[in-house]
Amino acid sequence: MTGHSAALRSAIAEFRNPRGYVAVASTGLPPDRAVAALRADLDTWVAAERDSASYDAVIARTRASYARLVGVPVDRVAIGSQTSVLTSLVAAAVPEGAEVLLPDGDFASIEFPFLTRPGIRPRVVPLAALADAITEETWLVAFSHVQSATGVVADLDAIAEAAARAGAYTVCDVTQAAGVAPVDARRFDVTVCHAHKWLCSPPGAAFLTLSPRFDALLTPIHAGWYAGDDPWTNTYGPTMNLAPDARRFDVSPAWHAWVGAEHSIALFASLDIAEVWAWTSSLGDALCDAIGIPQQHQPIVSWPDASGDDLRRLADAGIRVSGRAGRLRASFHLWNDLSDVEAIARIVR
User: Fold this and answer.
1) CA 324, CA 288: separation in Å to the nearest integer?
2) What pLDDT digit, counting tens, does each position of 296-344 carry?
3) CA dist., res. 149 & res. 153, Å (int)
4) For domain 6-27+272-348, which CATH number applies: 3.40.190.10, 3.30.499.10, 3.90.79.10, 3.90.1150.10?
5) Beta strands 169-173 and 138-144: pairing type?
6) Would the pTM of this model clear 0.85, i.e. be above it?
7) Among the four 41, 76, 224, 349, which has the fewest Cβ within 10 Å?
């Protein structure tokens, strides 16, 4: 770690050296600052000293940190609790009969809202062919920045350029990218993200970013009291004053989750994410070398394991990885180092 910046070394130190946990693509681990904030919040709650309105400042700070992390103005960010709910908001805006292009095998939360929407035309193609498959008939293309099952990074440039030529809208799920890969949400009409993986937040904190041109197409079908310009004066109907910006698509927050998310996302927003990617993908390549497979140049390394034998042997050795789509998936983040690579290699090579 001697080559790391001081900021990255400080961030790594917040994760308490959890050797053998190589499963961030399933669930991230919380940094010390998030754990301390959550414990303090629970103590305040138990003591009946927590005012619900006081969480508003927490959410405002978290929204601002996320906006900074993905490079958009804060008024372009809405909050929610699950990516599928936010994607469903987009699916509801697709015109009758319109084509939606999807990559084969992408995560359910980015695909099912479109596949289950009646009256539209989903078309599924291999990820590698996604850019070439965009035509003037394509109204929207939806895909993940990083594929959940394999860690493969989509060709963002090719997809964005092809969509622009065809006049198609773009939806990108950055759940497996934000916090480990540089993300510029301005490149897409919509991004969705759940923060409980690489952003190391509690489950229940998710984000939606919207371009101005796509914002105008959406109806706030999930609007509740928190979508109001001033939520605390919009708690009873029938009068409703929606927020004038992306906040009108907010879903009422699971307050305690946001207490942890505030500190985790602020941590990642303070880092050079390109440095995070360089470190974690180097661990991925080291693992590929150690077990004798081609380098994949990504923090998620996967290989065929249809029988689950490798997964079981690693679990028996106390190493946490995951199995997805008939493959074993090892995913490296800030707390991992070469000792984790060596531990996996001893079992599977």
Assistant:
1) 18
2) 999 999 999 999 999 999 999 999 999 999 999 999 999 999 999 999 9
3) 11
4) 3.90.1150.10
5) parallel
6) yes
7) 349
Are the C-beta atoms of residues 299 and 179 closer than 8 Å to each other?
no
Over residues 284-298, mean pLDDT: 97
- Is the backbone of residue 29 left (phi > 0), alpha (psi -120 to 50) or beta? beta
CATH of domain 52-269: 3.40.640.10
Could you say which DSSP state residue 30 is in?
Answer: -
Phi, psi of 122 (to 5 degrees): -70, 140
Please spell the DSSP secondary structure of 179-238, one letter per residue. TTS---GGGSSEEEEETTSTT---TT-EEEEE-HHHHTT---TT--GGGBSSGGG-SSSS
